[in-house]
From TrEMBL, chain A:
Domain 4Fe-4S Mo/W bis-MGD-type: 226-282
GO molecular function: 2 iron, 2 sulfur cluster binding; 4 iron, 4 sulfur cluster binding; metal ion binding; NADH dehydrogenase (ubiquinone) activity; oxidoreductase activity, acting on NAD(P)H; quinone binding
Domain (4Fe-4S His(Cys)3-ligated-type) ranges: 89-128
Entry-linked NCBIfam families: NuoG
InterPro entries assigned: 2Fe-2S_ferredoxin-like_sf, 2Fe-2S_ferredoxin-type, Mopterin_OxRdtase, Mopterin_OxRdtase_4Fe-4S_dom, NADH_UbQ_OxRdtase_75kDa_su_CS, NADH_UbQ_OxRdtase_ferredoxin, NADH_UbQ_OxRdtase_Gsu, NADH_UbQ_OxRdtase_Gsu_4Fe4S-bd
Cofactor descriptive note: Binds 1 [2Fe-2S] cluster per subunit.
Name of protein: NADH-quinone oxidoreductase
Function of the protein: NDH-1 shuttles electrons from NADH, via FMN and iron-sulfur (Fe-S) centers, to quinones in the respiratory chain. Couples the redox reaction to proton translocation (for every two electrons transferred, four hydrogen ions are translocated across the cytoplasmic membrane), and thus conserves the redox energy in a proton gradient.
UniProtKB/TrEMBL annotation, chain B:
Disordered, as annotated region: 180-268, 341-364
GO terms, biological process: inorganic cation transmembrane transport
Coiled coil: none
Protein name as it appears in the record: NADH dehydrogenase subunit E
Amino acid sequence: MSDTFKLNIDGKDIEVPRHYTLMQACEEAGAEIPRFCYHERLSVAGNCRMCLVEWEGAPKPIASCAQTVGDMRPNRDGSAPNIRTKGDYVDKARNGVMEFLLINHPLDCPICDQGGECDLQDQAMAYGRAGSRYEENKRAVEDKYMGPLVKTIMTRCIQCTRCVRFSAEVAGVEELGMISRGEGAEITTYLEKSLTSELSGNVIDLCPVGALTSKPYAFNARPWELRKTSSIDVMDAMGASIRVDAKGDGVMRILPETNEEINEEWLSDKSRFVWDGLARQRLDKPYIRENGRLRAATWGEAFAAAKEALSVSADKIGVVAGDLIEVEQAKAALDLFRALGVNSTDCRPAGAKYGTDGVRERYILNGTLAGVEEADMLLLVGANPRVEAAVWNARIRKTWLWADLKVGRIGEAADLTYDHEWLGQGADALTNVRDTDFGKALASAERPMIVVGEGALCGEDGEAVLASALKLANEVGAIKEDWAGFGVLHNAAGRVGALDVGFVPADDGADTAAILSGGMETVVLLGADEVDLSSLGDSKVIYVGSHGDAGAARADIILPSAAYTEMAATYVNTEGRVQMTSRAVQPKGEAREGWAIFRALSDVMGKTLAYDTADALRGVLRGAEGESTVFSGLGFAPGVRGIEALKQPMTSASAALTSVSFGAVVDDFYMTNPIARASKTMAECSALASALDTPVAAE
Amino acid sequence: MALRRFDLEAGGDTFAFKPETEEKIAFWRGKYPAEKQRSAVIPLLWLAQKDNAGWLSEPAMREVADRLEMPYIRVYEVATFYTMFRLQPVGKYHIQLCGTTPCQLRGADRLKDVCKTEIGNPMYVTDDGRLSWEEVECLGACVNAPMVQINDDYYEDLTEDSLQEIIGKLKNGVEAQAGPQVDRINSAPEGGTAILTDPALFDGSRNEVSRLPNLAEDKAEAPEASSAAKPEEAAPTNTKREVPKDSNTGKTTLISNKEKENLAGERPETVEVTAEEQDDLKRIKGIGPKNEDALNELGVFTFKQIAAWTPENVDWVEDYMSFPGRIEREGWIGQAKTLAEGGETEFSKRVDAGDVPSSQDDED
């Protein structure tokens, strides 16, 4: 049997692989097939019947999504089966299906949030009849509570079961289902409990009608009023592709954009619903602390105060960059403070021991996010992808589910939504991992992948963990010609970019923990709110950031900067992929882009930086003509280009591996950065998640 | 169908299987391999319902889910899909009244009225907790319609009075006799059997074989047929059936043509030949086993005979075999001449190669 199958679709001969569905074949032939229940990333249900096509000779129209091409038979004379996707027969069939779908669908489009971007609306226009012949009462369904993110108007549901399949297959948390039957069938969670998956917002995108809509966005805007801007998400280090929808100067919602290499077409709830945090707790003008109280000031006053604060001995100044720092700000700040002679600069969490040896491959995810689909073994060292990179976790689950990926994990026990072998709590498990069954399988695996989480690198033995994980990777053959199965999974969007510009202590400079321990006279925080500020003592604090959070509360001088939706800024994701956000709305009030603040401050300090525009700054980052730096190209992950560097053993490994548990890197998935903490929606989610101490039955 | 929802209040917080149920649970779970234990969800839900006074409470459903390691929502889907899982409390005696067509035609509607007056609305439990009722779809006892199922038993052939009486008994804690409520056993005729009453039908005496039909006459050792078993006359048949008449329309079978007279033309000459001298007439295109037999009966056995047919002969044979013009059309005579001289035709070659199934002998 050949691997391909010949078809004649709308008079056009086409040859497709036998495993294709008829729908895929029709699309290959350029035909448009309407559908509701079918979704290419979910299993086939075949229950909406909208994708009917005509198969010449068949007694009935065929649901093309559920018909495998290889199962079709040729015509009697041996010629390829004739499929028609247009014509009276097909039109009539689809027309009938559409009429049935609309029988119980309410005519509330004018008050429906899906209006204008509704599959049912569009397809009713294209394939439906003009009026209704139905004179009975329509069915009404009680609305269901699904938590603070998903609003339900269940009368609109057409029972496509996309949401049910998503939660069971992609999210891996079986909490949505269809109960009862026939006319009484309803989609619900178990006893209307709140959705717990960190990917639950995707059911809103999947819902082809207005049954599941975004609760925070409810009645806020119509799709055609929104300014749509493609951008990059910064809630985790994946750098998912997003679309920021804005109206006026407010961000109205955030949607995922398809990016096969990063987020496919999903988005985590934090990335999707954080937008209300962009309008709350904002720093919109400079502040200066006087007599213990912060007062609004002008930029001039603030810069003058900053100059005074920075006019101390350079070794008494420390600079800490936060999780959301963009490359431009990091570069400008670093250039300024180096010019001032400051060596105590750091962008890593307290205690982190990586990124100082200048080998980029040792702090990025060389295996790439999409690369896990090719892996056959995955060892997670101190990483919990479910909270650190929720969308990547779905990809791991997908590979586990469909391609038999084996996953092992060292760290605190956690439910990752897929079966995995738990190999130990702390770093010492790394030493004897090769003696375990999992370790043996790892050594014989074709494409093993070892991923070290940031949590594993922040302990006393962080450096040793990295070194031994790298050694293990080389020993089990994870580093070879076409496979770089070693990497670090970060959880902060700004980290890799800041490391790339060299935002680490120079020479004898202090690191984050030392800077914050109180010995400095002036501490500059670049949106650093995740660090422990309690032992700063009487250090003067200059805070540059967008939100009034921990850092701003402790600050003596506040310089307001733009958030990620308000500037075109460069971020480097955990794979080392350089990407750029776009400006969707203007910065709030007097806030300025981070790099511009330091450019202006450099003037005040008399150390004027050499660039006047963001483009000029990026030109410096890109390097001179012909020079190749990490910022030379946008949008690609280095991946296997780093194998030579990965083959070099780490020399500086000193401390022994301890049995101290790696601990949870992310305490609260919904509260990992100042924007999320400013968001009401995230606060609700967080409160619900912490109240949830009765986990559903194990899958 | 009304909306079905768990009665969370009545369900309480806990449920435990009765100790004696464990054995049954093990039996059902034992039917499925370890990784497919969730296949046992329906039997387990059923057992849970039995252990929970006839209805499935939410804790009972969770217990089943926990035991089978299934997400609650998956069990919830099953429990709400099947209406035999009752999600609200029922009385000690729960009446399931069949309202489907045969019962409805036999008066189920009137029984519903009885239930409504005696008990209340469907799924309402009487204050003493004894009774409740609901209408269900066909319970498969149409021959005893109308009927109800009370707990595990069928009460059949009901009238308003008999149902009222049963309900009255159950109300007062008296067991009511299950089964048909009229004078009949199971679904046997009311008032006793009226046909097939002859005891000889059942003592085996009618089972004797009077004559083996395929036994040769002379060798037959027919058992002595008892006179009682001998039918007095031919078995009655549908006497109104039209007996086919023998008409000379030319459309009837060859066999009936044998007696034909007044055929046009002239009957071909017959010969007597031994079996060895016979030709395989089927090698002629147009002659199959049937036609060959017919020709043999006419005394035609060889190609030579057919080759020598005169036009009158042809007319006669065609008339006899009721296919005017066919012999000429198919060129029997020409073929026969070739074959008689030892030659071969395209068709005879194929016959010899066994490629023509219609020319194989019937016995093959």
